[in-house]
Amino acid sequence: MLIRRGIEPGKGGWALPGGFIEMNESPKSAILREVYEETNLKGKEAKLFDVIHYNSVFYSSILIISYEVLISDFEPARPGDDAIEVRFFNFDDRPKLIFKPHEDLLRKWLKGEY
User: How far apart are CA 40 and CA 67, in angstroms?
Assistant: First the structure.
């Protein structure tokens, strides 16, 4: 599942759902909130996938904490928050992701490297 971003950075590009951790929020709670805000889908479980450091041209140095999220109920996905589209793709038919770390994480997940 990918979202098409409605805001900068990467406006109009495809990305994994995600965002920033709010004050007093755990990383796990943050990803469940972000997935819901951007897709209208409720996650029932979030399993830590990887933690990577990335030198971003947009935010300088960032730490990316990625999770594999299991969706509890596949209500129709609909964009919200900063997403303008939500779609499910087969790996070979998907668009190129706007952020290199997202592309790297997706490839690692598909190879089962976690």
Answer: 17
* Helix (H), strand (E) counts: the chain: 2, 5
Structural domain range at position 40: 2-110
Task: Determine the Cα–Cα distance for residues 52 and 16; give it in Å rounded to an integer.
Answer: 15
Catalytic pick among 37, 68, 85, 103: 85
The enclosing domain of 7 has a CATH number of 3.90.79.10
pLDDT (tens digit per residue) in 24-35: 999 999 999 999
pLDDT tens figures, 33-45: 999 999 999 999 9
The verdict on whether 38 is a catalytic residue reads no
Listed residue (52, 66, 62) closest to 15, CA to CA: 66
Specify the number of domains making up the chain.
1
pLDDT at 112: 86
